[in-house]
Amino acid sequence: MIVKQARFLKSSTELKGCPPDNLPEFAFIGRSNVGKSSLINMLTNRSKLAKTSSTPGKTQLINHFLINEQWYLVDLPGYGYTRMPATERERMMKMIREYTLKRQNLVCLFLLIDARLDMQKADQQFLHFLGSNQVPFVLVFTKTDKITGNRIRQNIAAYKKTLLESWESLPQIFLTSALHKQGREELLEFIQETLS
Length: 196
Ligand code: GTP
Ligand code: MG
Known about the structure:
By secondary structure, the protein is α/β, with parallel strands linked by helices.
């Protein structure tokens, strides 16, 4: 898959406001600050397409990007940011759940996980939500440039072990670094295959 064109289309506060669902769509989800917006910029090779920030809670809306005039990439707000007021957090979670369950053209969710951390409660809860609703997803470990290869292997092995305590099989797994562009080809190839 070669990304020839990538343009921002629209930010929506809820599912109702999203662009028409007539093109296949891939969405990025995960805890606040895990690197969703950075990964979208890395994949599209455009450093400022999606807004990133070192402070959690940057993306607050459903952001649609149109790629090659053929498919959508979606940047979603992060979940699990404990410093956000509870009512605001709940509103955002409701929006994420509604989008995930009802967006008809959603082909696959990319669930981003910080490669440095043990399984976090918010991720465990979201995984449970995906499983009980049979939402198609893959796991994307982020920020691999921040730890050694050995630690990554250990962490992922531990993650798989925990997953297999409640899942019958493992989802597809990708390792990425937005900084080093690791995982770019693999993710784009996955999208290409899924689309064809
Ligand atoms: P929210 O929109 O707040 O939910 O965050 P997000 O998941 O979109 O994260 P974002 O892409 O804004 O990145 C958060 C911070 O992590 C920024 O300071 C990024 O520069 C940094 N970051 C993201 N990906 C990587 C990576 O692969 N490597 C390194 N070293 N830093 C990264
Ligand atoms: Mg973001």
